[in-house]
Design goal:
With about 400 residues, the protein is an alpha/beta fold. It has one domain. About 35% of the residues lie in helices and about 15% in strands. The chain contains 16 helices and 13 strands. The two termini are about 45 Å apart.
């Protein structure tokens, strides 16, 4: 099945609607309002008031179990981690679209970013700020764009080098995402990464199908039904094929066992890209990448991007975010349309996923506006998930409080 067909099936295509409200429409609307105001009589007859229909109430907010989650005590190291509000932005060498990434150069750029973030020039000591030899480390990538636009294997090579320098055993490194077949299509295979585990929550069995001979999902036991789920008061029925991508229906979205029981630390490595007029980066890579039954969550997109990251299985395990912006898309996301992909040549580092996402959002919006794809930066609408996350104590969304450190090699 084609990628666009899969994303339409699962609700991931146009997950966050584009902001089509252009500057021209803004001024046109303003002019219409002004003209209308001039025509309205100063006094409205009483009988006219009685004829007017009452303003409909705003749509009911979809309730979740976030208040229950707020009460769970935090631990040392909970998000936003060691460096709240700090973002390191590394300007990399050129990464022409369609050409091979220079892995040796990327390793130097990752090392430089980690040194600037931690103050440690020694690779092992820099990574040792977050990871210990006894940890089982999950590297959360984003392979949804397959080979066209996914976390680059060369970036993951450099991260593995850092983990090994910190004393982590190769057998205790897990590259993971929600769909195993997308990982493989993006180049994350056992042959490419020998000795490292490659795991996905949703998968197809030896028969190449989601279902075994008994009609049961191969992946049904990969979600943790005993751990606290993300509960949202909205449901969606899936057909048999879509259920293979969702695992369950109902009001519960369950976390993958990869985060609830396997890994002790998570290094989050999203790809920089747009979703409509906003950017999907650290928070969404964690929330939607860790949960089942996400199709229904697009009805509360802003909340469901942020709130799951407040659950202890993510809040207390994510220690580092490294955004792969070597190549990105300014439109057509969150999928991968080649005509919108460009050489952004940037890597972002931070323990604070909210601050990193704020910087990522600004990069995407600036590019969209420069290309005429978007005329108005309606941040209050397109990045409300950042404010929600800040309110949950996950990081810093206020631009004036974010400290950006720029690094340029050579």
């Amino acid at each position: 099945m084609a990628k666009d067909d899969i994303m339409t099936l699962t609700g991931e295509k146009d997950a966050c609607p584009s902001d089509k409200f252009s500057r021209r429409k803004f001024f046109a609307s303003a002019a219409m309002v002004a003209a209308g105001a001039a025509l309205v009589p100063r006094l409205i007859p009483q009988e006219k008031v009685q004829e007017e229909k009452p303003t409909p109430p705003p749509p009911t907010e979809i309730k979740t179990n976030i208040d229950e989650v707020r009460k769970i005590p935090r631990v040392e190291g909970s998000l936003p981690g060691k460096y709240p509000g700090k973002v390191v932005r590394v300007k990399t060498g050129a990464n022409p679209v369609g050409q091979k990434i220079d892995g040796a150069r990327v390793r130097k750029e990752i090392s430089a970013g980690m040194a600037e973030l931690t103050g440690e020039k020694n690779l092992g000591k820099a990574w040792g700020k977050f990871i210990g030899p006894k940890d089982v480390v999950g590297i959360k990538v984003n392979p949804i764009g397959e080979a066209i636009l996914s976390t680059k294997p060369e970036v993951v090579d450099a991260i593995i080098e850092g983990l090994l320098a910190a004393g982590v055993l190769k057998a205790n490194i897990v590259i993971w995402d929600r769909r195993l077949f997308e990982l493989e299509a993006a180049g994350f295979t056992a042959a490419r990464f020998p000795g490292v585990r490659i795991l996905g929550t949703e998968l197809k069995g030896p028969n190449g199908e989601f279902y075994d001979g008994k009609g049961e999902l191969w992946a049904k036991d990969n979600i943790d039904r005993e751990a606290l789920p993300y509960v949202a008061d909205v449901e969606q029925k899936y057909d048999k094929e879509t259920l293979g991508y969702m695992i369950n229906e109902g009001k519960n979205s369950y976390f993958t066992k990869i985060v609830t029981g396997m890994v002790t630390k998570i290094v989050n490595v999203p790809i920089l890209k747009n979703a409509g007029a906003t950017a999907t980066c650290c928070l969404k890579n964690l929330s939607y990448g860790s949960l089942s039954n996400t199709g229904r969550l697009h009805k509360l997109w802003m909340k469901s991007v942020a709130e799951p990251c407040a659950f202890p299985v993510l809040r207390d395990k994510v220690v580092l975010n490294i955004v792969d912006g070597l190549q990105t898309c300014y439109d057509g996301g969150p999928g991968a349309n080649p005509k919108f992909i460009y050489d952004a040549s940037v890597l972002l580092f931070g323990t604070d996923p909210v601050a990193v996402d704020a910087v990522a959002h600004d990069i995407i919006v600036k590019e969209r506006m420069a290309r005429g794809t978007q005329q108005v930066d309606a941040r209050a609408k397109s990045a409300a998930f950042l404010d929600i996350a800040e309110g949950l104590g996950l990081g810093v969304a206020t631009r004036e409080k974010i400290k950006i450190r720029d690094v340029k090699l050579g």
